[in-house]
Write the structure tokens for this entry.
Amino acid sequence: MRYGYFNDESREYVITRPDTPLPWINYLGSEAYFGIISNTAGGYSFYKDARLRRLTRYRLNNVPLDSGGRYIYLRDDDAPSNRSDPNFWSPTWQPSRIPLDEYECRHGLGYTTIRSRRKDIEAQIRYFVPLGESLEIWELTITNHRDQSINLSAFLAIEFCLWDALDDATNFQRNLSLAEVEVDDGVIYHKTEYRERRNHFAYLACSEEVAGFDTQREAFLGAYRGWESPAAVEAGQLSNSMASGWQPIGAQHIKIHLDAGQQKEIIFILGYHENSQDEKFDPPESQRLNKRTVKPVIARYVQVEEVERAFQALRTYWDELLDLLQVSTPDAHTNRLVNLWNVYQVMVTFNLSRSASYFESGIGRGIGFRDSNQDLLGFLHLIPERARERILDLAATQLPSGGAYHQYQPLTKRGNDDIGSNFNDDPLWLVLSTSAYIKETDDWSILDEAVPYDNKPGTEEPLFDHLERSIGYTLDRLGPHRLPLIGRADWNDCLNLNCFSDTPGQSFQTTTNKDGNVAESVFIAGMFILAANEMADIARRRQLNEQAEAFSRAAQEMEEALWSAGWDGDWFRRAYDDFGNPIGSKQCEEGKIFIEPQGMCIMAGLGLENGRAMQALDSVAERLATPHGILLHQPAYSRYYLHLGEISSYPAGYKENAGVFCHTNPWIMIAEARVGRGNNAFDYYLRINPSVREEISDVHKCEPYVYAQMIAGHDTPMHGEAKNSWLTGTAAWNYVAITQWILGIRPTYDGLAIEPVIPTEWEGFKAVRRFRGTRYTIHVERHSPGNEIRLEVNGMPIDGSIIPTPPTGTEEVDVIVKLG
Ligand code: BGC
Ligand code: NOJ
């Protein structure tokens, strides 16, 4: 069952009924000011940091589902008001949920438009954040389709958050006595805590003259009432209430007269603004907000033409980004994801890491070290300058030991002490993102950038040295089998082999009751081989031959350890526990085989020559693959194991306990491509592709235009149901798997490689890729079923699979790839 459709032409997903199985959301904003918006206008906004600079309130886990948002109410002032047939409604369906005659929500790139019609009054609201601005626009267009004129009221309402979202939701003894606002010229300014250490405020402005306002929540809603039928909307009048403590809101009332057939546009602006410390007040000795700096911004965006220009600029921005790679394959789902939605999701994960979604509260997690390094893999080619900055920010949270803070807060860019470090895979991800960055951009200078450790001035060293310390960190921590010690966890946050927690509520992420000198990770071993070989390559290209040798030798030794202790006979083992027993082995009763080491070890090139890669992948197909994707492990853990930690805390089949953890599926796609089995790789690709799953939206439940972190495994009664959509490394990795390994268009240090491993039945495909300033038009033509390739570059046959770097300034290169 579907709840909408893809409009590939307009680059939108169109939702045709408001009651989707879960709120289907979109993101507004691209750099500093962000918002989440659902298909019924639910959601919230923040500046840079969803925890520390929250502009509006939202209560996750609330009922009715998805209440709290960017709401507008329309009221037919000519019609009588009564409870059974109210004369007001919400054009976005929520929060009033009064039936609409027509409804449509279009989620596009950085904007959402909701259009509806009730009793011949049509309303459309377009929400977006202009590029480079710290504000959002709500553009309301109302059309009177009746054959008489009408007097309408439009009410807009949002609930302000008192900045720190955690404090706002918990510390009521203090925060119910804090709120302060100013209202000036119809503009509502929310300035809680501005009197003391803050120099920022939020504001709500409108292009029309307002007939009234409210800033105190209960004055607007009425005591004990909710957003679905505010007393003030029912009455048709606001009371100009001034918030003083309690719950500050922004509500505005606009009166509209429309003749038959007439249309009117109204612009609302919700914004965030900072004043410099010495210009906070106006006059300076007063306590009144200095509004001089923000007024020009407001004056600009209350103009329809300016708003339209800003909207077109946003469209162009995205068109240019998408233009960096466009493909035309025989499969519509692939085209849709590669050309649009997957790229878009990669951008969102780059911007927000795992901080703010309908499954991430915006309070719990900042920028993840391992997460962001992986998100970069899909993002690098889009805006390399921002990728570069992120790599350096991440590196600055590395510790002198080579370890890394697991997370940092985007506002401060400082490591998060609550979570700390010791996730032993973390530092290696920095090597992988940096090498991918250089392959894309050829910008070797990044390695010479001076970057501090733990953000401490005076500790700066070149990025290259940071990467060396990443490698050293693993080598300094080898266990009894010469495999890397796991620390708190590796990529699988829930395999907590040193935790041994028997206390309810204790954090699995930060509790360590064991010395940590025994439990080892085969996954990190595979990852180390990949990273150390990258370092060897990098060092060789910088003429650091001795170091290159040392990296190669370390990779070689790790490989030996891996074959002697990490191979189980038919697949790679997962780890060794604190007692020195294998995990992910035939010897285990549960958790006999795990997906991660099969993917990671084969990506690192293990088993390609001795047939074991193929053997491991056959075991994956036999034991882990389901029609809804590949499970994390099998058999699922049926009870809690003290020595395994959080993984066994989930009921069987959910999340890390044998769910389809989508992030890892593309590793297997890449591995299948590496062993040359394009049919398998692509088959796995389709199983979790959200567009393919659109037709089972009632089962899948999450948005059909983005990947979800997890699809419930076959040990649950909900097999096939997705959770944690949007913010997941699945986005970047699927993009890498399909574009670089299946379609095979892969940046290397020496140029763009083209090595497709596509399904045998495909006759070929076409792609246009911008790479280091040149536009490559690539035609792949299948001649027979194999993966052998012959390249013709601008009509000339060349040896190998890498297109030689054209002379600087070359704009176009034509490539023909003969496959088979
Ligand atoms: C989740 C993981 C997550 C971790 C850290 C666990 O409960 O299952 O997916 O990475 O928490 O927040
Ligand atoms: C989600 C986390 O964000 C990611 O870092 C981790 O690797 C996976 N969960 C698996 O546990």
